[in-house]
Amino acid sequence: MKWTKQKVNNLFFLLGVGVVVAMLFTFDVSFVELWEHICHAGYWLIPIIGVWIFIYGINALAWQCVIRGTEKEKKVSFLRIYKLTITGYALNYSTPVGGLGGEPYRIMELSKDIGNERATSSVILYAMMHMFAHFWFWFTSVFLYLALVAIGDLPLNGAIAIALGAVVVLSVLAFYFFSKGYRNGLVVKAIRWIGKIPGLKKWSKRFQEKHGDSLSKIDEQIAALHKQDKRAFYSSLLLEYVSRIVQSTEVLFMLLLFGIDCGGGFGGIMLTFLHSILIVAFTTFFANLIGFLPMQLGVQEGGFVLSIAALGLSAALGIFVSVICRVREIIWILIGLILMKIN
Q1: According to the model, what pLDDT value does residue 294 have?
Q2: Angle 230-257/265-289 helices, nearest 10 degrees?
Q3: Pick from 334, 327, 329, 331: nearest CA to 40
Q4: Distance CA 280, CA 48 (A)
Q5: Pairwise CA distance, residues 278 & 310, whole Å
């Protein structure tokens, strides 16, 4: 059977639908408890879900910076990129192995606009930028935590110190490897590394022989963005970093819903927002360490409970936050799947 792009699109669509159905029946709480959580959120669900319109918009702008930095001749509209951003993340939430389902879909769709090589390089570059910004977010969150410790707002014990140290070490290592990848490209090396996995050596060799020139050109395009268009590179990185900060507002909304505002007023709400940043940072760090599960089942929930408990808040609040975030993910997955079928 010949796999056309439309058939692959349908396969991705059915995969997403299947995962959504599975998620609805595998919540850690009963449907009665789930409905109680949703009712408790009430009208706060509107800003919790709505803020992702802006988050995905920032992600799309970051990706557009990458595309413009690597593709000078053909222009891709922002709405086209925005749509592929939402659908790509919907598939990332739905698939295992660190959420890799969205990248092949984005390459397949974007290749209609700028060709396969350019599409591949821009998608890989954006995926690298997305993760690179993650590490900067986690790295700077360590110093935010220490600043709040210094003013007596948060505790610091041996276990927390070890965890913060681990984040710093892993982030510094990541900065080194990302810098190598941005300077020299990484696609060819990645295919060679895959060849070291038992059973994949012959496949890796055949793939390199067949697509060697294309892989080298993709690596050249990856390296060119950092060397030739630093403005596009750092604009994309900054936008991706800002999207993590904006993402923290959904946790802020839920904390305010529970009456947690650190004393109220502008200062109290700002302190609560800083706590929200730390909750998102710790949870995403934990979830990405074990990112091979579809929708990171159980990992995200555990991350929210642990991170919220580390700030001295109740485990019940952590469960509520994780459940509402899961509901928000399902809603945006459905939106992404619908967009897949809209030209």
Answers
A1: 47
A2: 110
A3: 327
A4: 14
A5: 10
Left if phi > 0, otherwise alpha if psi is -120 to 50, otherwise beta: which for 293? beta
User: Which residue carries 């060819």 as its tokens?
Assistant: 188
Of 49, 86, 122, 67, whose CA–CA distance to 324 is shortest? 49
Torsion angle, CA of 198/202/205/208, rounded to 10 degrees? -90
- Give the DSSP letter string of 265-276: HHHHHHHHHHHH
CB 156 within 8 A of CB 173: no
Against a cut of 0.70, is the pTM above it? yes
* Series of mean pLDDT values for 10-residue runs along the chain (343 residues): 55 61 57 68 85 96 86 79 92 64 82 83 86 94 94 86 92 88 71 67 71 70 72 90 95 84 80 91 79 51 65 71 82 88 76
Do residues 241 and 137 make contact, with C-beta atoms less than 8 angstroms apart? yes
Tokens, residue 274: 């800083």
User: In whole angstroms, what is the distance from residue 262 CA to residue 73 CA?
Assistant: 52
Amino acid 153: pLDDT: 85
- On the 0-12 / 13-18 / 19+ scale of CB atoms within 10 A, 66 is buried
pLDDT at 62: 95
pLDDT at 309: 66
Report the SS3 class of residue 197.
Answer: coil
